[in-house]
Amino acid sequence: MRSYQPKQGAGTDIAIAGTIMGQGPKRVGRNTCVEIFETPLPGMGVRYEFTTEHGRRIGVLVHRDARRDLLVYSADDLDTCSEALRLTTTESASLVELLGGTKITERLTDLRHEVEGLSIEWVSIKRGSPLADCSIGDGKIRTLTGASVVAILRDGDSYPGPGPDFMLRVGDLALVIGSIDGVARARTIIAG
Amino acid sequence: MAIDIALLELGVMMIVLASMGRLAFALGLPTVPFYLVAGLFFGDGGFVPIEEASSFVDIGSSLGVIFLLFMLGLEYTPVELRQSLASDPASHVVDLVANASPGVIAGFVLGWGPLGATMLGGITYISSSGVVAKLLVDLGRLGNRETPGILSTLVIEDLVMAIFLPVVAVLLAGESALSGVVSGLIALAIISSVIALPARAGHRASLLVDAESREVLLISLLGIALLVAGIAEHFHVSYAIGAFLVGILLSGQVAERARHLLEPLRDSFSALFFVSFGLAVDPVTLIGVLPVAGLLALVGAASKFGSGYWTARRRGSTSRGARRAGVTLIPRGEFSIVLAGIAIAGNVDADVGPITVAYVLLLAVGGSMAARFVP
Fold first, then answer.
1. What percent of chain B has pLDDT over 90?
2. Which of A127, B22, B99, B275 is most buried when burial is the number of CB atoms within 10 A of its CB?
3. Average of pLDDT values for B41-45?
């Protein structure tokens, strides 16, 4: 029974149209490897699509400002996108979390179970956020709240353990860990 | 200049523009044709004269062209330019020949001479990147199979303009054929160096402009764009192209930040540009050119549909996808108006303004509506 196999599924091993992304070429079973097609869209961003086991096509459009659209293709015409859902950076992060996506989320969930009262939150830096174009140190987050920024996601890249001089940009997602109260206050400092 | 009257004129104009913009959004249509129509209400032959504010409108509309083209250059990264050039060159040649020749032929028939005919060819050729890209986003078609082909057509058309414009602008200014060739070659050299240079070199150049403060970056960008535009105009290469080339040169993070910073400036000043183009056109003259413009629009819609359909089919779209591609590329817009502005400055013919306004009105509105109805 496949559903009982632990930690297996799309998202852990992604092959992109011939090239393997992630930890180098790795031989993976047919069921765990999704062949993803990458198409550049000049002036817009990059589009990734794949066909599901049940013959439906879905995709993600990564805009240049790192915003993402979820694309769902028509069932009878795989060339036609029938739904393009616009997601904010926070929403796409939440969707990934709900879909049981990244390893980092899995580990964080484990961590949350182990430490009582630990709060973990993704905070997005939007236009007009107080810390946009400022360094993490400028916010004095740890001094004021006890919470820490432990990783930054930017344009699909992750920056674990950013130093105090790490410059935050609009579109970044900051992973904040601390007490429930501390994280809430850190969110106010970062996002306003 | 009486400042109170000038401000009143500008205020009324902006409010009319805003109402037209609201109407455009409510109807799901591009704003460009609505701003042009708003321009017809003012100025020559319109209801409201613009006199005291006219010098501001003149400068403002030049700034509008500069921001429009600067942002267009910023839209494309060198990698995207490279990929678009490599993808199916034959389709780009077909696009050029099919859509420029109706204008060229019409230009000769109207007796505008070779230069005037070439300008009209450019006007009928180029699809509106702004209108088409917005249609693709609004209709949720960025995911479709035919979309990369549509977008690379837009990229190549804009690049063709970047080489074509300096040549014709210099020739229209009455310079020798040699200087026309030289300015075309300079544009070609700048574009090919941007495309050929490794991305890292481009980033390093862009970092010279970068500044941590948004304010300083914005003012640096304005300074560079205006300076290069001024130099280009001094050598009769058209300030529009100067701004476009600076935009192409900037890349990476600086380009991304510049896009955010300049967007509101572009939106406000390009509205001023479209309205001022409408100002210079007397609505009565539109009626006279309607048969010519209507015929050009019909042929222009058909030729664009044909080249777009053919390109999409070659790239493996279904006939339904190819029909969508053909229709989506029909709208003409900002670049046709920019070309017409240069043609007017070069004294091509009095009719070039009204013909272009009518052509853009018909195809921007008609093309956008048609794109919605094609499933």
1. 45
2. B275
3. 72
- List helix spans (H) across chain A: 89-98, 103-114, 141-145, 180-191
pLDDT at residue B105 greater than cutoff 70 = yes
d(CA B129, CA B335): 8
- CB contact (8 A) between residue B260 and residue A59: no
In this complex, do B144 and A80 lie within 8 Å of one another by their Cβ atoms?
Answer: yes
CA distance A50 to A78: 10
B136: nearest CA partner in chain A: A44
pLDDT of residue B374: 81
A116: distance to nearest CA of chain B, Å?
Answer: 41
Res A110 pLDDT > 90: no
Helix (H, G, I), strand (E, B) or coil at B42: strand
Touching B: A residues 64-103, CB under 8 Å:
64-65, 69, 71, 73, 77, 79-81, 83-84
Residues of chain B in Cβ contact (below 8 Å) with chain A: 75-76, 79-81, 83-84, 129, 133, 140-148, 151-152, 154-155, 212, 214, 253, 256, 260, 317-318, 320-321
- A140 vs A17, more confident: A140
Q: Give the three-state DSSP class for A127.
A: coil
Residues of A in contact with B260 (CB under 8 A): 65, 127, 170
Q: What's the pLDDT score for residue B44?
A: 65
Handedness of CA A159, A164, A170, A175 (dihedral sign): positive
Which of B106, B101, B125 shows the shortest CA–CA distance to B335? Answer: B125
Q: Is A22 helix (H, G, I), strand (E, B) or coil?
A: coil
- Dist CA A179 CA A147 (whole Å): 7
Q: Could you give the ipTM of this predicted complex?
A: 0.75
Sheet of A14-16: strand order equals A19-21, A14-16, A34-41, A45-51, A57-63, A68-73, A81-87
pLDDT digits (tens, 9 = 90+) for B223-277: 999 999 999 888 888 888 889 888 888 877 788 889 889 999 999 999 999 998 8
Mean of pLDDT over chain B? 88
- Beta-strand (E) ranges in B5-127? none
Taking the CA of residue B21 and the nearest CA in chain A, the distance in Å comes to 23
A10: left (phi over 0), alpha (psi -120 to 50) or beta: beta
Nearest chain A CA: its distance from B360 CA (Å): 23
CA distance B301 to chain A (A): 23
Assigned token pair, B79:
């990698």
Residues in chain A with CB shorter than 8 Å from the CB of B143 are: 47, 49, 59, 61, 69, 71, 73, 81, 84
In the prediction, which pLDDT does A93 show?
Answer: 79
* Cβ <8 Å between B141 and A73: no
